[in-house]
Amino acid sequence: MIRAAAAAAGLIGIAALVTTGRADAERAVLLPTAKVDVPAAAAPQTAVLAGGCFWGMEAVFRRVKGVRSVTAGYAGGTAATANYPAVSSERTGHAEAIRISYDPGRVSYATLLRVYFSIAHDPTQVDRQGPDSGPSYRSAIFPQTPQQAAVARAYVAQLTAAHSFQRPIATKLEQGRFYPAEAYHQDFFDRNPGHPYIVTWDKPKVAAFRAGFPTLAR
């Protein structure tokens, strides 16, 4: 896997966060609020999103007010191949993903999507994010309800119509069960703050989230 090999060898280059076609974490351009959202509910809800390495995705969404928990894992393949060595082969159909449990009274599904598209990853990249390449790093949303699917489609259409990105949005809506990743992948950002990959690729992403969403950040 490119991520693991590059980090171990110390070969990852200068930090960059690509959001709306710009590699500048300090000036990441925020996207408009979604015009359509999932109706509010009393009980906690779940969202499953894939957007490259799950370490950084998890780190960003753990810092969103209203998010109760975030789990790193795999989605899109089978239970038999839901493990890091198999997924790293790029032949399982899995994407590295995160499962978000959130309080819809404090943060809505559409708001999570706004963070996802604005900061958490570059939705215009196909089968890659930053230094990592392969279908396990694809941009994909796994709706947990028909309402989530409708909101995700509407937001992608809204961003496309507004020409929010310089390139086409590559994000796909997919179906598939989520499987938690190995324990050593959970909360990796906070447990390994000096890891070369975290320092280079994920800390700028978290900083961009705090700067771009000050009222939403914990």
Through-space gap between termini: 32 Å
Could you give the order of the helices and strands? HEHEHEHEEEHEEHH
Total of helices: 7
* Order of neighbouring strands in the sheet with most strands: 7-6-1-3-2-8
Radius of gyration, taken over Cα atoms and rounded to an integer in Å: 16 Å
Helix fraction by DSSP (H/I, runs of at least 4)? 25-40%
Unreliable spans: 4-27
Q: Give the helix/strand class.
A: alpha+beta
Main β-sheet description: 6 strands, mixed
Strand fraction: 15-25%
Mean pLDDT: 89
How many runs of DSSP E, i.e. beta strands?
8
| Overall geometric form | globular
Descriptive notes:
The protein is an alpha+beta fold and 218 residues long. 32% of the residues lie in helices and 17% in strands. It is built from seven helices and eight strands. The protein has helices at 2-9, 54-62, 84-87, 109-120, 146-161, 188-191, 196-212; strands at residues 45-51, 67-75, 95-102, 128-129, 132-133, 139-141, 172-173, 178-180. It has a six-stranded mixed beta sheet, with helices on one face. A two-stranded antiparallel sheet has the order 4-5. α2 packs across α4 and α2 packs parallel to α7 (196-212). The longest helix has 17 residues, at 196-212. The protein is globular, with a radius of gyration of 16 Å. The N and C termini lie far apart (32 Å). The model is unreliable at 4-27 (pLDDT under 50).
How would you sum up this structure in a few lines?
The protein has helices spanning 2-9, 54-62, 84-87, 109-120, 146-161, 188-191, 196-212, and strands at residues 45-51, 67-75, 95-102, 128-129, 132-133, 139-141, 172-173, 178-180.
